[in-house]
Specification:
13 helices; about 350 residues; alpha/beta; D-Maltodextrin-Binding Protein, domain 2; 3-stranded antiparallel beta sheet; single chain; 2 domains; about 40% helix; globular
């Protein structure tokens, strides 16, 4: 919690720093640190070449959607490929929250990353993140659905049945775990926080495990996370019912920090588009065999629309709210662990 609170203080300080000579003609929804004169909704490369970064070591991470250690191993071959393509050392940086991932790129400690669908907007607006790809195949990018899971013995068969229940959402910034349910469920006569009690679990896998263990009556989660957990044997599909499935959304995005040197950016982009997943990666990522090209402007429109419809702003206040929720969840998790340890 201390680390997250320290981040909030540092972030507020950084947010107050304006350009000495602000000649940006269009910023759109981006933070004041960035400019979008080509109006593609992501931060432009800095005009001043002195601001271009060409670090000896590149730092890479993947969204903390599940156990971070799993993905450190999953991306090890791609890291080696990046090293060969860029001629630089590439290290994996494990992040424990979406807010921490955004702060790491904004502060310059993170250069290449995979952001979850919802937090991608925070990365773009507040950290100069430039999304370029999504996991996919030769035909299209890999997508996922918002699904609602419940135990088969819960008696819950439809969305209508979750009224009055205790339902796990993941985190404030999550698309399928929070924003999409708040935008879509009212279309089916169900309003979160009014028709049922929302409890934030922190992550998709924690929502799913919580449902299985009886901590929650049901949970809206990302279908790709659910099926990976089933495939890995972490949960038994025979014990679970899926009572709702949404239209398809793009899955986690991949990209780079806008202030990297253009020559380095070209090498990074070429590496993403030319790399082919190992058999182990294909198994981990549901059959995807490559990084499929996308743009934030076009392919994230549905996600931005959902965020707008739920009143979510990809700005400093929104990120602070997400960080505070992360701190509260971390504190509860620590308290629970301490309580269990005391019983032993």
């Amino acid at each position: 919690m201390k680390k997250i609170l320290a981040f909030l203080m540092a972030f507020s300080l950084m947010a107050g720093i304006a350009f000495a000579a602000d000649d940006c003609k269009n910023r759109g929804t981006l933070d004041e640190m960035y400019c979008d004169e080509n109006m593609d909704l992501v931060a432009d490369t800095p005009k001043n070449k002195k601001d271009w970064k060409d670090p000896r070591t590149l730092v890479f991470t993947y969204t903390p959607v599940e156990d971070p250690a799993v993905y450190k191993d999953a991306f090890s071959d791609f890291q080696k490929y990046l090293e060969e393509a860029t001629g630089k050392r590439v290290v994996y940086y494990t992040v424990q929250s979406n807010a921490a991932e955004v702060e790491a790129m904004r502060s310059g400690r993170l250069h290449i990353a995979g952001f979850s669908t919802g937090p991608t907007g925070f990365g773009v607006n507040l950290a100069g993140y430039v999304p370029i790809a999504v996991k996919g195949d030769a035909e299209s990018f890999q997508g996922y659905n918002l699904i609602v899971v419940t135990r088969k013995d819960s008696g819950i068969k439809t969305l209508e049945d979750i009224k009055g229940k205790r339902i796990a959402h993941t985190s404030a910034s999550s698309n399928s775990g929070n924003l999409a349910p708040r935008a879509i469920f009212p279309q089916h006569g169900i309003v979160p926080d009014q028709d049922y009690t929302v409890v934030y679990s922190g992550k998709h896998d924690q929502s799913i495990l919580g449902v299985v263990h009886g901590d929650y009556d049901a949970a809206p989660v990302a279908s790709d996370v659910y099926y990976r957990m089933v495939g890995a044997g972490r949960v038994n599909a025979d014990d679970i019912n899926i009572i709702f499935t949404s239209p398809k959304f793009p899955t986690s995005s991949f990209g780079y920090a806008n202030n990297l040197h253009p020559d380095l950016v070209k090498k990074i982009v070429d590496a993403f588009y030319s790399y082919r997943f190992t058999p182990d990666m294909q198994e981990t990522f549901g059959g995807a065999d490559r990084f499929f090209p996308i743009t934030y402007q076009e392919d994230w429109k549905v996600i931005r629309d959902i965020a707008e419809s739920t009143g979510t702003s990809y700005n400093q206040d929104g990120l602070k709210k997400m960080a505070q929720q992360d701190a509260e969840k971390a504190a509860k998790k620590a308290a629970k662990a301490a309580k269990q340890k005391a019983k032993q």
